[in-house]
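step: validate -> pass
step: tokenize input -> pass
step: predict -> running
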Amino acid sequence: MENKKNLSNLRDCVREALEKGSQRGYEFKTMRFAIIAELKRLGYLSSDVKDKLLEWNQKCEKVLLPNEQKRQLLDYVDWADKRDCKIGCKGLEDFCIGQNKCSFYKKKINFNRKEVETPPFDFDEARHFLETRYKADGYLLTLILNVLRRYQLEKGTGEVMFIGYRTVASLIRDQYGHIVEPMTIFRRIQDLISEGMLEVVSKGEKGNFGKPANGYRFLRWQSPQNNTDTTHNNLYV
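step: predict -> pass
step: emit ->
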């Protein structure tokens, strides 16, 4: 039975390619993968994906011949079936229609912001605990929590925030006027992870500076009853 999913839920750039076709070369190859990944995300059956690719091919700059259609389109769907093929806005940024115009981006951002509307723990309680336990370092730990939370809400990242140490350092500099080395940010984030406030959920996403950025998630932290341990007392630099 053919699966009739709503194409309005596609990323706008992919839906536009389906409707208008694509130029051969880089655009064709990128959109071929994107169409497959996006239709799979919406729950299309492989046979339906193949039908959509064949329709798309008729609108492209240079229509593939029947023997090419099998090798470059149909067989590619079979290849993708064996893999967890996904694509995000980063992979499609060369074909972005603009975040201010993209309905998919707006829906995603609104959903992500709603998802994290309520923080998983009391940030004032966390500040008190960190400044008691870590003394001077506790202030920096609190700043890191604050900029991560602000980044999460303003960027609409959802539960997982992909952000690098340099970006965290830049946000602290711009928002609070403190210059902190990225390696110091790394060490303090390890403290937050050890306290159960943060966890690393994935690695290797491209960050703002072109280097891998970890994905972080706030955990449902609770302050221990006895938080008077002052053994962590290293000044940050």
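step: describe -> The chain has two domains: 7-112, 116-218.
step: cleanup -> pass
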